[in-house]
Amino acid sequence: MPNQKKIKKHLLEIFHTGLEAVKPTTIIPSSINFNYPLLKIEQQTFDLSLFKHIVVLGAGKASALMAQSLENILEGFITKGLISTKYGHSCNLKKIEIIEAGHPVPDQNSLLAGQKILKLINQYRSKHTLFIFLLSGGASSLMVLPQKNISLKEKQLITSLLLESGANINEINAIRKHLSAIKGGHLAKAIYPSTLVSLIISDVIGDKLDVIGSGPTTADSSTWQDCAFILDKYSLWDKLSSSLKSYFQEALKGHLSETPKSTDKCFQKVKNIILASNLKALLKAAHKAKQLGYKTIILTSSLQGEAKEAGKFLASIAKETLKSNHPLAPPCCLLCGGETTVHLTQKHGKGGRNQELALAFALEIQNLDHLYLLSAGTDGTDGPTDAAGAIVDGTTIPYASQKNIDGKKFLELHDSYNFFKAINTLLITGPTFTNVMDMQIIISTKED
Fold first, then answer.
1. Which residue ranges of the chain lie beneath pLDDT 70?
2. pTM for the whole structure
3. Residue burial 2-26, b: 16+ Cβ < 10 Å; e: rest
4. CATH tag for 31-278 (out of 3.90.1150.10, 3.40.190.10, 3.40.50.10180, 3.40.50.150)
């Protein structure tokens, strides 16, 4: 039998190396060069002598550490700022105010953040102000400002319905954008005619600007018709409040305006710059895996679909390495990333997409001594749990069975958290202060 302790150590080293590549403390200093008056961010250059004020705004799980890293570069030049982040994700800032708020469902602090951000925009909006917006995963929930006649309670309801339905993030955020006065390009519209640069850590498949954080600083490609299709697809119309249902119906009749589109003049003064993505983390993880002696391949950075089906699919590829040496011969490391979904049944337990994927994978590889998987959220959170994900191998299911724990039943009940907690194989990292979706790391070892 392979050295399990050594291989699990390798899994963690590969994961944390990938994480380090997309943390604000890495990407902000490497992407920004400041020599007054010129501020260079990637390929964009801004002459700060043209601005009387620099205002820093932001929302997302990584926004606090992004703000801290930016303060280290621009501290003496920042007029004021405010960012909203998830509870427990704050850090010490000097000039930029922090609000902690609810995720994945917005709360009263999320609303407060949206209101205060708009107030700062109104206070400093002019051609002589540079707004810097720090955007990362979680922003859709951490900064909300519903359209008139929509309450926070209604926003919370539809968010919960969408999350439980199995809708993907593109679909969820299309609805969010059309109910918001700050997302879907509305923030950029509010900031105009000021100059706006948005620094982005992408947490969506394909790095689509209008989906990341529900696209507050970019033109929206989704429509009211898209929203109707999504509500039909997941049978949500009858679950909406009467006022929310009426709101959508009025919009479909053409009585409500669309979200700002690419032809809007406000976007002429916006630069959106993606500083980190899932692929960037995978590339660095792959480099580490090679250093550890594994032949390595990145399968995809766009893994999506039902989590348990993705787990089965990845297990089939892992088993193929042992059977036919494809796509690589052991010892090898297969990497992928993305964001799967879990369609919850009425009766369900506790877990997250990574834990569900890992449990499905474990059931497929039971009693195979040479296969290992780490599946985790790069933000350190998997679903409504304190775990980032889980680590499994061929002994996971047999070991659980010895304790009279039936992995198949736990999977059917979407109760993966309690399964892994019972056998002490949860991966708990705490907040990572970044978010580029999920990573799956498979190691296949040689036969003894």
1. 1-2, 447-448
2. 0.94
3. beeeebbebbebbbebbbbbbbbeb
4. 3.40.50.10180
